[in-house]
Write a sequence for this structure.
């Protein structure tokens, strides 16, 4: 089936190497029609129901249903009047680069999604929490926001309605933990970026103690298209019972690394072999981290699995961000995992002991194995750490995510660990180009 505007809604107007559509161009393409419809024909509750019916799930990693999340914001006469909508654009997950592509390729699509989500939860203030290194994204968004204020698409009485909204762009001070939504909220408040205890959850008690929805860039970009085309259309884009498309990405030793908008449920084999062009000549596929650095490896036996939330989870990993890192047969899997664990150890916020102290121990142990100083008991030590830093044993999900590539590497590449220790060297050193 050839791509058309109803099959690739998020990327249909993105032209790499060309300027993104300005406000006038975006409106000519049908932009802000969803906002007009919502403000003139739909109540906030009806917008939430439309997103609920579409089965849109968060595209930032967790996959929680967006409409359900929005419905958790308190309503009724006793509900707090001040609410906030926060867009999480702090894209610091290694291997992930989809949100930057969407922001810089079509900023007004994201802004319209933010405005619709804010209207749905009755928020009059929205924040975009942007990774500080994304300077081009910052410039693009500031220009687009200024256009909206100039045309009364932001501010007071938008489009002649009684709805008011301001959008503020906040650039992060730069910590990976800010991807955790409550740490992000602390950072926005000017506090140390550490996670909060839950419950209460942000939809009830969030930014400055008020109801807050935090949503990922890709998730919000889907919303205008759902309002324009309907929930059934959005469901029909997928190959499985998950709804919509997904921005899948591939990095590593493939012929065409990049990003593609494809139906949710597209197989790993199709993405790597057809869209990414297969492995570079002289390299063979050995494994892949399917959804950014904090997900478990999948291997050759998983190539024909449809990449959706439930199927990937059943295989022992997570879809995560859908941006995968491919491991080839000439790259040392221990070196790859060591590189990832070094990142996670440095980025730990230090709030809880297992994460603060456990991740550096993992990094040092992997370094010893890679450098030929490992001993047989190190493998048991790594297994123990992967369990002790697992779900339910740390304050937030940072450490459990950090040990996912480790625990799966111990499972699928056990022979490599043993060979490093028995030979007291990395057997891949001579293969590196």
């Amino acid at each position: 089936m050839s791509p058309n505007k109803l099959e690739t809604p998020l990327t249909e107007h993105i032209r790499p190497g060309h300027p993104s559509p300005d406000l006038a161009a975006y409106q000519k393409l049908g932009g802000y029609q969803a906002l007009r419809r919502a403000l003139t024909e739909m109540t906030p509750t009806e917008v939430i129901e439309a997103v609920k019916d579409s089965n849109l799930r968060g595209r930032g990693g967790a996959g929680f249903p967006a409409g359900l999340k929005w419905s958790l914001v308190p309503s009724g006469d006793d509900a707090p009047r001040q609410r906030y909508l926060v867009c999480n654009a702090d894209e610091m997950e290694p291997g992930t680069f989809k949100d930057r592509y969407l922001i810089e390729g079509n900023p007004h699509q994201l802004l319209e999604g933010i405005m619709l989500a804010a209207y749905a939860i009755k928020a009059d203030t929205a924040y975009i929490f942007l990774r500080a290194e994304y300077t081009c994204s910052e410039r693009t968004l500031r220009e687009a926001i200024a256009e909206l204020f100039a045309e009364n698409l932001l501010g007071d009485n938008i489009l002649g309605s009684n709805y008011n909204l301001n959008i503020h762009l906040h650039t992060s001070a730069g910590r990976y933990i800010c991807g955790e939504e409550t740490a992000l909220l602390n950072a926005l408040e000017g506090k140390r970026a550490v996670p909060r205890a839950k419950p209460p959850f942000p939809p009830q008690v969030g930014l400055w103690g008020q109801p807050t929805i935090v949503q990922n860039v890709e998730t919000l970009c889907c919303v205008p298209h759902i309002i324009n085309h309907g929930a059934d259309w959005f469901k029909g884009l997928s190959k499985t019972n998950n709804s919509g498309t997904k921005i899948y990405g591939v990095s590593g030793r493939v012929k065409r690394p990049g990003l593609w908008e494809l139906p949710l449920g597209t197989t790993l084999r199709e993405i790597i072999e057809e869209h990414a062009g297969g492995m570079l000549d002289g390299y063979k596929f050995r494994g892949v981290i399917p959804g950014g650095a904090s997900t478990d490896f999948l291997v050759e036996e998983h190539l024909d699995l449809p990449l959706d939330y439930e199927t990937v989870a059943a295989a022992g990993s997570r879809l995560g961000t859908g941006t995968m890192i491919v491991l080839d047969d000439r790259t040392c899997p221990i070196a790859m995992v060591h590189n990832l664990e070094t990142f996670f150890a440095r980025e730990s916020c230090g709030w809880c002991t297992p994460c603060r102290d456990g991740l550096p121990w993992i990094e040092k142990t992997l370094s010893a194995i890679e450098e030929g100083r490992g001993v047989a008991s190190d493998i048991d030590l790594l297994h123990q750490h992967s369990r002790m830093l697992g779900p339910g044993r740390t304050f937030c999900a940072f450490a459990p995510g950090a040990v996912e590539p480790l625990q799966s590497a111990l499972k699928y590449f056990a022979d490599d660990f043993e060979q490093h220790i028995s030979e007291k060297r990395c057997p891949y050193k001579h293969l590196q180009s």
Residues 333-431 form a domain with the de novo design (two linked rop proteins) fold (CATH 1.20.1440.230).
